[in-house]
C-alpha cells in the first residue's frame, strides 16, 4: 500500500538543506561511503568563515563477519587517533545451536 504525502511534506528535503544545522558563518560537510571490500568510511568537517577555524574527523569501520570482530578507527584534526575492537556475542549463538541439536536427538 502506498502512503500519500501531505502538502507540507513535499518540500521538506529542500527545506532541510537550509534549515537543519545551517549557519551563515559556517560550512559543514558529512560524507559516508562503503568500499567493495566492506570497509565503511565516514568523514565530517566544518569551517567557520568568519574566524578561519576548521576541524574534521575520519572514521573507518571494518567487519570480519565469520569471527564477529569489528575494527573501528577514528582520527581527527587534533591528531588524535582512537581504535576500538569489538567482538560480537558468539557464545549465545553457539548455545542456541547446541540446544537445537539436543532437542532434535
Automatic annotation (TrEMBL):
It catalyses: chloride(in) = chloride(out); K(+)(in) = K(+)(out). Keywords: Acetylation, Ion transport, Isopeptide bond, Membrane, Mitochondrion, Mitochondrion outer membrane, NAD, Nucleotide-binding, Phosphoprotein, Porin, Transmembrane, Transmembrane beta strand, Transport, Ubl conjugation. Interacts with ARMC12 in a TBC1D21-dependent manner. Interacts with MISFA. This is Non-selective voltage-gated ion channel VDAC3. It is found in: Mitochondrion outer membrane. GO terms for cellular component: mitochondrial outer membrane; pore complex. Belongs to the eukaryotic mitochondrial porin family. InterPro entries: Porin_dom_sf, Porin_Euk, Porin_Euk/Tom40. PANTHER family: VOLTAGE-DEPENDENT ANION-SELECTIVE CHANNEL (PTHR11743), VOLTAGE-DEPENDENT ANION-SELECTIVE CHANNEL PROTEIN 3 (PTHR11743:SF28). GO terms for molecular function: nucleotide binding; porin activity; voltage-gated monoatomic anion channel activity. Pfam families: Porin_3. It comes from Canis lupus familiaris. Non-selective voltage-gated ion channel that mediates the transport of anions and cations through the mitochondrion outer membrane and plasma membrane. Forms a high-conducting channel with a stable open state and a voltage-induced closure with a mild preference for anions over cations. Involved in male fertility and sperm mitochondrial sheath formation.
Amino acid at each position: 500500500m502506498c502512503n500519500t504525502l501531505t502538502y507540507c511534506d513535499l518540500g521538506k528535503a529542500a527545506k532541510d538543506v537550509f534549515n537543519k544545522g545551517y549557519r551563515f558563518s559556517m560550512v559543514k560537510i558529512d560524507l559516508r561511503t562503503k568500499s567493495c571490500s566492506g570497509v565503511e568510511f565516514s568523514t565530517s568537517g566544518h569551517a567557520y568563515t568568519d574566524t578561519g577555524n576548521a576541524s574534521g574527523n575520519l572514521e573507518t569501520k571494518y567487519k570480519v563477519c565469520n569471527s564477529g570482530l569489528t575494527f573501528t578507527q577514528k582520527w581527527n584534526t587534533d591528531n588524535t587517533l582512537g581504535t576500538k575492537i569489538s567482538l560480537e556475542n558468539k557464545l549465545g549463538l553457539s548455545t542456541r545451536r547446541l540446544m537445537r541439536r539436543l532437542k532434535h536427538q
